[in-house]
Amino acid sequence: VLLFEVLVLVSVEHSEGVRCFAVFNSTTGECHDELGEVDQDDCCHNPHYGYLTEEGECRFCGPDVWSSWSSWSSCNSLCNQGVRQSHRKCLGRDMSKCKDINDNLHIEPCNGTCCDVKEWDAWLAWSPCSVTCGGVGVRKRQRTCGSPPECFELCSGPSEETESCTSNMLSVNDDDH
Questions:
Q1: 147 in the same domain as 101
Q2: Residue 3 domain-assigned (yes or no)
Q3: Transmembrane ranges (predicted)?
């Protein structure tokens, strides 16, 4: 009976259950190839594995390392000076062991490019007249802003023109022959 109680006590002491993955991508910080749910300590017997935390974040079983820096974000200003940023994450079981844990964000100045180009492209051809058999109709033509889509509001003036038109062409109805 004593042996049974010792085994029960030993088996109760274990780490939390986690979803374990055979592949941890240190560039993206993502886990791939799920192996199933096991104790965290059992998963991390292989230092190349990764596991999913309760918060849904993938962690590396190996020594704490920094991920690669992310691509730079877009400039936060469409026109004039702004900033852009790049970030990285500490990957591992004990994130406090990454050197300088606060070195996870780079910020640099940038200039928005919307001020550089704010001109309309040439007008497109006029549409056909809206009437084909006498009378007064309308026709339209359009143009597009030569700036990038996020800078569209910087092109001033209309994107479409409308004018009156007449047509002297008569439609021929085949039933009248």
A1: no
A2: no
A3: none
